[in-house]
């Protein structure tokens, strides 16, 4: 039986023998594609080739691509764990032809590989072709039928509709008819009962699609119409996990060696045995865990940390789903998913070196997320219990949907866990109400992000040139434009023949400025890159869009932005010198006002380390190091020169290298011509963003000048207030005086408290065989605490309640003598009284305190306390 590693290698070796260039997988996280968060198919990294925006590296390419399908049109998350073949992260084996071979060769290659190289019996295979669609004026794919007829029986060629056999990248973009290959993995007995022909595309777990051959020949426009692409292409995708299932004779992807090492580790850590039963919640949980750990690990290795927004939120959601399942059905109350990273690294680290390189970081981040979410679950359990008790007290049987949704949406507590706990208590949740709350949230999100993008209006079919490295003003004209509508109004995106506007990328924000001529002027609000085009967003549409314009970048913002960008390179180098070569950039933001730099490091930086980094960076700035720019060199040459390449970034064959002395990085951003232009570098803060990730925020250029001017101004003002030029000496003197005065005040407070004690002792009321004191005071919290502790020792069978309004803040303190503490709980008493001051607090049976917001409520609390 072939191992998964051998299966992968045979695929690549086969296509290498057919003159295909074997390329590495692109990162699973897409950083510069506004249309996608993640690579969700094998063709994603080649999109620009299909659209004609870039020249292909080679006419024939093959690879295995890491893919993630958890959002948007392609979302398999809810199916994962409940069947044998859906996954969040999966590998897509693919071969590509860019204007080279087409249907005939694609079909021949696929058939030869499956039947002769892999040895899948021909009688187990079925194929589908596009049956045509009258509404689109698309005819049946007769060519594909004829090519298949030459190698497979005609009764195994099935017509497929537009849903199954017309592949589209999205609402717009490259598309075309496709031909799917399905394999029947059932036993001979089952095949004799029901033909596989009847089960193709019917969600049968053992009659599954393994390969899709897409014949890319159209482009879907925004208005829904189709146009022919300049050249015909081949885009194929074969599910690696399903292929392993077929070749290893298994009935489930999870029974292949893609997953069994991970499953064995989960069994070892949880003490639960995996039996492979579809409906068994324990087995579902194990499938969820081993699937999700792959998705999360690869995303983190590629630079996407869990967070509360965007792609980071999706990764956090996947991870929390895994934690939730393991908590509920595997009894795992402590972090353990992070221990699976080492197993995954051993399985896949050879072919995907990012896992090997980033293993420690990946494990640390996952462990930190587990710690955090397990605390969320524990806190959520307390909230759920309170909600259940309140529902029972109100004689209701259904938990209110708003409360359940708040637990889910605000506190991150899984709704299905709330459902299970409620059912254990004989309650249900308001399912319709909960779904309505979810729908409201979806509609809010859609409204916030809703936009309509129209088709391009092409004025001139000429290449567009970025001139922003050399100039910030340029004579230009609009080659194409399109209208964009969103919640902020109506705008236009334009592509310029010569654009000085840098498009957002590599952490650097997009340039702003103006586009003007003698007749009209438009504000350039932002600049981004999409499908290889530099697109500037402008405030309106010119009356004469074909006229000559002058494009002008906001000079001040550009100057400060490129100062901040250049200094991030110097900062990166300095951090590696001070902290060690384990430091790697994990994210950045570069704008005109400040810079943010995220990097791998497992400890908080000391003040000495921060000072040394600052010193090193400013030394480089003062050395006036000239920029050395290698604008278009082969990537291997740049790496040989010592340039740093970042994990999670996709580099082309040719790259741009930026060098300031010994600092060498691959970078597409704009930079100063000499480090002296940066002025001064100042670190504003150092913090943690995730386990193993630190963040530095800093300023340079004009902002650092402003910082020191403001600092100087403050020192002058302080000096004037102190009436002394020696500010430090004067402040030290004030501090000494303050210590002395504070000691005097404390002594006076104690004297006053002593006087109060004797008065309070005489104020207790006899309540049967017990004594109660309810006292109003303006004494501070410390003095009240001292008095209450002394009184509860000296006055037997007593309850002491003090209501304080010190500093205009309501405070309630309760003391219970030890001989009553079993029957009278100070914490319970203070909790009840605190309702009157809109507050809360707690303590132990003998002593408790509570603060609040409503000072006027002290009177009600006083009257209530008298009734105890």
UniProtKB/TrEMBL annotation:
Transmembrane segments: none
Residues covered by the Alanyl-transfer RNA synthetases family profile domain: 2-710
Keywords: Aminoacyl-tRNA synthetase, ATP-binding, Cytoplasm, Ligase, Metal-binding, Nucleotide-binding, Protein biosynthesis, RNA-binding, tRNA-binding, Zinc
Catalytic activity: tRNA(Ala) + L-alanine + ATP = L-alanyl-tRNA(Ala) + AMP + diphosphate
Cofactor notes: Binds 1 zinc ion per subunit.
InterPro entries membership: aa-tRNA-synth_II/BPL/LPL, Ala-tRNA-lgiase_IIc, Ala-tRNA-ligase_IIc_anticod-bd, Ala-tRNA-synth_IIc_core, Ala-tRNA-synth_IIc_N, Ala-tRNA_ligase, Ala_tRNA_ligase_euk/bac, DHHA1_dom
GO biological process terms, semicolon-separated: alanyl-tRNA aminoacylation
Gene3D superfamilies for this protein: 2.40.30.130, 3.10.310.40, 3.30.54.20, Bira Bifunctional Protein, Domain 2, Threonyl-trna Synthetase, Chain A, domain 2
Cited Pfam families: DHHA1, tRNA-synt_2c, tRNA_SAD
Binding site for Zn(2+): 565, 569, 667, 671
GO molecular function per UniProt: alanine-tRNA ligase activity; aminoacyl-tRNA deacylase activity; ATP binding; tRNA binding; zinc ion binding
Cofactor: Zn(2+)
E.C. designation(s): 6.1.1.7
GO cellular component, one term: cytoplasm
Main location: cytoplasm
Cell compartments where the protein resides: Cytoplasm
EC class of the enzyme, as a word: ligase
Domain comment in the entry: Consists of three domains; the N-terminal catalytic domain, the editing domain and the C-terminal C-Ala domain. The editing domain removes incorrectly charged amino acids, while the C-Ala domain, along with tRNA(Ala), serves as a bridge to cooperatively bring together the editing and aminoacylation centers thus stimulating deacylation of misacylated tRNAs.
HAMAP family listed in its UniProt record: Ala_tRNA_synth_B
Function, as annotated: Catalyzes the attachment of alanine to tRNA(Ala) in a two-step reaction: alanine is first activated by ATP to form Ala-AMP and then transferred to the acceptor end of tRNA(Ala). Also edits incorrectly charged Ser-tRNA(Ala) and Gly-tRNA(Ala) via its editing domain.
UniProt similarity note: Belongs to the class-II aminoacyl-tRNA synthetase family.
Protein known as: Alanine--tRNA ligase
Organism: Chryseobacterium defluvii
